[in-house]
UniProtKB/TrEMBL annotation:
Residues 84-340 form the Aminoglycoside phosphotransferase domain. SUPFAM superfamilies: Protein kinase-like (PK-like). Signal peptide: none annotated. It comes from Rhodococcus zopfii. InterPro entries: ACAD10_11_N, AGP_Transferase, Aminoglycoside_PTrfase, Kinase-like_dom_sf. This is Phosphotransferase family protein. It comes from the Bacteria. It holds the Pfam family APH.
């Protein structure tokens, strides 16, 4: 059983004797803790250099964004006029603005997504641009039309995508907090229609032949090895080390368990990385999904990772005496539905690894990166990021329970 010592911040736990040698190898460095997808390594290095500048972020006004957009389109699309710029809510990581482009053929709505100095999720606008353009022809998703990958035009990296209509939660008897996706519930009839489609779209994402797509910023882990899992734990452990504001025995123990139990990835797919309620839009009247949003964590890896993210407790609800993943369907129903839609077989042990990994990832996002960004005044949503911190303790409770169970087995 895990016990944290607050005095010396060490952890004491029972671990099977046969695993001691493996753990010693991890601690000694026999497992490569620096093997990362190259673009992610560069992303995190850029973040570290940027944060060292100690600049407080000043959120942009709609007037300032209007000027930047008009300067941008004066060269990118001089026949189009920018109007109706307004900040929109949602998103704990990116500044988002809606605007319209007018030309002789009509009017179209767009969304501008810009990086603050620090964010709840440090990601790359160029990668988001590439994956949206590769996958929007195959699944309902925004089309990315322009990107400022280095921030030379907007001051911070930015991407511009077309606006798609829909809602993130039902208007009928709305429930749950205002932060989209957390505790959202659906009326029974609506979830019966939306749930299967939600799973079916995920299966389509995983079944697209990514090797036939233009994804120059993406690298693939080696199939038939543990590299897919290793890249992920190396990514998030680097995030934890860079961003944590307080040491955590639980984080250390979880990281070690994950390194000791890396699963093999038999087939590499495009992983969405944040596939859950709150990150899709739907039409209530037609009862259909209109867009899958927030592709910023997308990467090539193991399909089990998206499932492990979906089953996190924070996105679940309890309705009609049932525990519903993302407020839509029970866990076993989700797995069966995914297997039927994708033609893949879910390995329960691999899913367990990714369930633990995703809780660790959420733990790092809420109790490290979000708190640091809010503390440093480097984000436009410092109040929301501070509010997210208590959610981290739900993940710590889940991690303590899951790791304790694994160490006993």
């Amino acid at each position: 059983m895990l016990m944290a010592d607050d005095t010396n911040r060490t952890a004491r736990f029972d671990i099977p004797r046969q695993k001691e040698t493996a753990m010693t190898e991890v601690i000694a460095g026999a497992v490569d803790t620096h093997d990362l997808e190259p673009a992610i390594q560069q992303l995190l290095d850029r973040k570290s250099a940027r944060i060292e500048s100690n600049v407080t972020y000043q959120p942009l006004t709609a007037v300032e964004v209007t000027a930047k957009l008009r300067d941008f389109f004066a060269t990118e699309a001089p026949n189009r006029t920018v109007n109706d710029v307004e900040r929109i809510g949602g998103g704990a990581s990116k500044e988002q603005f809606m605007f319209t482009l007018h030309d002789t053929t009509g009017v179209e709505k767009y969304i501008l997504r810009m990086d603050p100095i620090q964010t709840a999720a440090e990601t790359d606008r160029q990668r988001e641009f590439e994956v949206l353009n590769a996958y929007s022809p195959h699944v309902p998703a925004p089309r990315a039309d322009w990107v400022d990958h280095d921030g030379s035009r907007f001051g911070q990296p930015a991407a511009i995508m077309n606006f798609l209509s829909g809602v993130t939660k039902p208007s009928e008897k709305p429930s749950g907090p205002k932060v989209t996706g957390l505790g959202t519930s659906f009326p029974a009839g609506l979830r019966d229609d939306i749930g299967p489609e939600f799973v079916s779209v995920l299966a389509r994402i995983h079944n697209v032949d990514w090797s036939a797509c233009s994804l120059p910023s993406f690298a693939a882990p080696l199939a038939g090895t543990t590299q897919a899992a290793l890249w992920q734990i190396n990514w998030m452990s680097r995030v934890w080390r860079d961003d944590h504001v307080q040491s955590s025995a639980l984080a250390a123990v979880t990281e070690r368990w994950l390194r000791l139990n890396l699963p093999t990835c038999d087939a590499v797919v495009m992983v969405h990385g944040d596939y859950r309620t709150g990150n899709f839009l739907f039409n209530e009247e037609e009862r259909r999904i209109t867009a899958i949003l927030d592709w910023e964590f997308a990467h090539l890896g193991d399909f089990h990772e998206d499932l492990g993210w979906m089953v996190q407790d924070l996105y679940a609800t309890r309705q009609d005496g049932r525990d519903l993943v993302c407020g839509l369907m029970e866990r076993d129903e989700l797995i069966a539905s995914y297997e039927a839609a994708s033609g893949r077989t879910v390995n329960r042990r691999t899913l367990r690894w990714y369930e633990i990994y995703c809780a660790y990832k959420c733990y790092a996002i809420t109790l490290a990166t979000s708190i640091k960004a809010a503390r440093d005044g480097s984000n436009h949503q410092d109040v929301l990021l501070s509010w997210l911190a208590p959610a981290g303790y739900r993940f710590s409770t889940a991690l303590s329970s899951m790791i304790s169970e694994e160490l006993k087995s």
